[in-house]
Design a protein that fits this description.
The complex is a heterodimer. Chain A is built from 5 helices and 2 strands; from the N terminus they run ααααββα. Chain A is mostly helical. The longest helix of chain A has 27 residues. Chain B folds into 3 domains: 43 residues, no CATH class; 159 residues, Four Helix Bundle (Hemerythrin (Met), subunit A), CATH 1.20.120; 71 residues. The chains are: A mainly alpha, B mainly alpha.
């Protein structure tokens, strides 16, 4: 796992899901929760969501767009897209290794 | 539930609330608020306070980050210390303990290791903490900051109340329904002991909170804060070693001498020590990274566009 993702500690998985959700276009908080529940079956609470958003924003992987009715939509930055690509490449490698080893047993 | 959830948002740092509260409130209106939501907010508030340097737009100086980590280590040490103190008490009668340690000396060695680790942690804590406390007291005496004066006096007043109560209630709180050590306490004695326990935790908790506040509100030199990091490392390592020794002792007692009872060698005390050690390690990492000037969240890295506010 890339070191930068590991820095996110217990927010690593949530952060990955958020970046995936934003890869599809800018969203505000509730829309992210709904989108993530739909594509991954994972649901989490607003406290966890904003803990991850705080970290991702601080890393510069996402940025807040101007507020729309007191809600800030967020979008993926170029740096964030790069981190997401790297993380997905690592996970693809893990899946390939897993499938190969499973075929051997 | 929604109102309760919104109330819990007040536990978050002011900078976090300025940035996120409005949008979190909107999300709450659209989602189902459950007990898990409330628990998540409690944990989130603790996380935001421990990592307040990550709040976007908030620039924090290196000294501020080191100070925050040292305050956290202080709180962690006090949490650990309570459980460690309990772990030192072998419940009466002593003969089973002495017999057990004669037959199984490893129990005594692990007990002594736990003890020694606690002493080392305490000494390191004093070496690092006393100069900081002295600096805070001197500054407060010169500048006469009202709230900090109150904060410094609070532990003294609370301790005095506790001691006075202890002296007044000592005899009545041990009265039993029959003249035998095995007899139950009288209802009054039971209530007095419960009040004593409550007062103890209020004194310790209030004292820790007050001292933390006083240190957080004082201007401490970077040199002094950096100096305190070395004893903080020693204290944290010693706490970790003490935790390991306590676990080892518990295992030995459980497997080799189950008739012996050590007050704090159970899962609750070990769990509390673990929380203390985990907090201290996490805070120490942040403090050392700040001292080495690692970017983390202290500089302009990752800060969004806009005018950041200086902490």
């Amino acid at each position: 796992m890339p070191t930068e993702f590991a820095d996110l500690g217990r927010y690593t998985d949530v952060s990955l899901l958020i970046l995936l959700s934003l890869a599809d276009g800018a969203k505000h908080g509730y829309a992210m929760i709904e989108d993530i529940a739909q594509f991954s079956g994972t649901s989490f609470e607003p406290g966890t969501l904003y803990g991850a958003l705080m970290r991702l924003e601080r890393k510069g992987w996402i940025e807040a767009l101007p507020a729309d009715d007191r809600r800030h939509p967020y979008r993926l930055t170029a740096v964030g897209a790069g981190a997401l690509r790297q993380q997905l490449a690592t996970m693809r490698q893990i899946v390939r290794t897993g499938e190969l080893r499973q075929a051997l047993t | 539930m929604l109102r309760l959830a919104r109330g819990l948002l007040r536990l978050y740092p002011q900078a976090w609330r300025a940035r996120y509260e409005a949008e979190v409130t909107q999300v709450l209106r659209q989602t189902r608020v459950t007990g898990w939501t409330l628990l998540d907010f409690l944990l989130g508030a603790l996380d935001a306070r421990l990592h307040s340097d990550m709040i976007p737009g908030r620039l924090t100086s290196m000294a501020h980050r080191i100070r925050t980590s040292e305050i956290t280590i202080f709180c962690a040490f006090m949490v650990y210390g309570l459980a460690w103190a309990a772990s030192r008490f072998v419940e009466d009668p002593l003969p089973p303990w002495e017999h057990a340690t004669e037959l199984h000396p490893e129990i005594l060695w692990s007990y002594r290791a736990m003890d020694a680790a606690g002493v080392v942690a305490t000494l390191a804590f004093l070496v690092g903490g006393l100069p900081i406390l002295w600096s805070v007291i001197r500054q407060t005496a010169q500048a006469r900051k009202g709230r900090v004066v109150v904060a410094l006096l609070a532990p003294v007043v609370l301790s005095a109340i506790f001691i006075v109560y202890l002296l007044l209630a000592a005899q009545a709180s041990t009265a039993r329904v029959a003249p035998s050590l095995d007899a139950n306490l009288t209802p009054l004695a039971f209530v007095l002991q419960m009040i004593l326990i409550l007062l103890f935790f209020v004194t310790v908790g209030g004292g820790v909170a007050a001292v933390s506040y006083a240190v957080a509100r004082s201007d401490l030199s970077e040199r002094l804060l950096r100096f305190a990091l070395a004893p903080a490392v020693v204290a944290t390592v010693a706490m970790g070693a003490g935790l390991v020794a306590t676990v080892v002792m518990s295992v030995f007692i459980t497997t080799e001498a189950p008739n012996v009872s050590v007050l704090g060698a159970g899962p609750v005390a070990i769990g509390i020590m673990l929380v203390g050690v985990a907090l201290a390690v996490s805070a120490l990492r942040r403090g050392l990274r700040a001292a080495h000037g690692d970017g983390g969240a202290g500089a302009n890295d990752g800060a969004p566009a806009g005018s950041p506010s200086v902490a």
